[in-house]
């Protein structure tokens, strides 16, 4: 199996090292693992692509490249320039922090997986929820590292064999516990945490210039029951099948009167 890896935390992120271990477990001794990741952190860029300016790509080692662009850029660079053949699977992560609930909409980790799906490839985004039980342990990514490969095998086995148009990609979030504390996995919808939106916090620089920092909120706020963030906080890995189709299909009939 040939596997392409990317992330949004950057080429030197510890979560990427965990993802490489997961990928080699999946690929096997005769497989290939390629890494094309951002040269610098790209958290929060979503599905951004560098449409208006070029990006530099630098070889960092065997089958390992850094690109001055977003995770989606990295996937495009890998598929259309770097890799000699298309990969069998694209993995994005392991992100430091959860991409459950509303975080999924901002996530560069999901942006990389989404671009791979738009390019017709199976893709999974993996993120590690952090909390008091795992943030300060020797390896905060332990839950993902220990359970990741087996979970991915199950996802790939259950996934549709043929797809058209907006094909599925998968948002996987590991709970904020050490590996031994993981209770299992749950297929879950994307949740919504009430009142958990991004905001800004103003600061003055020493020169008196005014700057705004983007500021997040508490990630342990209760979410929609049975949703991704909800099961994560209960100790379960969440698996959310997604598509890039943003149509509100449940509302189409509501607006039929607009058809003329």
TrEMBL record:
Cofactor info, note text: Binds 1 divalent metal cation per subunit.
Cross-referenced Pfam families: SurE (PF01975)
Required cofactor(s): a divalent metal cation
GO CC, any one term: cytoplasm
Entry EC number(s): 3.1.3.5
Keyword annotations: Cytoplasm, Hydrolase, Metal-binding, Nucleotide-binding
Family matches, as InterPro entries: SurE, SurE-like_Pase/nucleotidase, SurE-like_sf
Residues given in the record as a divalent metal cation binding sites: 8-9, 43, 95
Every Survival protein SurE-like phosphatase/nucleotidase domain range: 3-193
Reactions the enzyme catalyzes: a ribonucleoside 5'-phosphate + H2O = a ribonucleoside + phosphate
Subcellular location: Cytoplasm
Its biological purpose: Nucleotidase that shows phosphatase activity on nucleoside 5'-monophosphates.
Family membership noted in the UniProt record: Belongs to the SurE nucleotidase family.
Protein name (record): 5'-nucleotidase SurE
Primary gene name: surE
């Amino acid at each position: 199996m040939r596997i392409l890896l990317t992330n949004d935390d950057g080429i030197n992120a510890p979560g990427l090292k965990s993802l490489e271990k997961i990928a080699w477990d999946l690929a096997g001794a005769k497989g290939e693992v390629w890494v094309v990741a951002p040269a610098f952190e790209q958290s929060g860029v979503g599905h951004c692509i560098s449409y208006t300016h070029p990006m530099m790509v630098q070889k960092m080692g065997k089958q390992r490249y850094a690109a001055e662009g977003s995770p989606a850029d990295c996937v495009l660079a890998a598929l259309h320039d770097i890799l000699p053949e298309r990969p069998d699977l694209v993995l994005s992560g392991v992100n430091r922090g959860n991409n459950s609930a509303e975080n999924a909409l901002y996530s560069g980790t999901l942006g990389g997986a989404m671009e791979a799906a738009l390019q017709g490839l199976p893709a999974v985004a993996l993120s590690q929820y952090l909390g008091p039980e795992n943030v300060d342990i020797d390896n905060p990514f332990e839950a993902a590292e220990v359970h990741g490969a087996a979970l991915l095998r199950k996802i790939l086995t259950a996934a549709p064999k043929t797809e058209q148009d907006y094909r599925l990609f998968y948002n996987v979030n590991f709970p904020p516990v050490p590996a031994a504390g993981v209770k299992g996995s749950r297929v879950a919808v994307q949740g919504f945490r009430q009142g958990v939106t991004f905001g800004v916090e103003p600061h003055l620089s020493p020169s008196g210039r005014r700057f705004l920092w983007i500021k997040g909120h508490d990630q342990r706020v209760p979410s929609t029951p049975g949703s991704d963030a909800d099961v994560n906080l209960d100790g379960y890995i969440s698996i959310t099948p997604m598509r890039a189709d943003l149509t509100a299909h449940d509302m189409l009939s509501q607006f039929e009167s607009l058809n003329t």
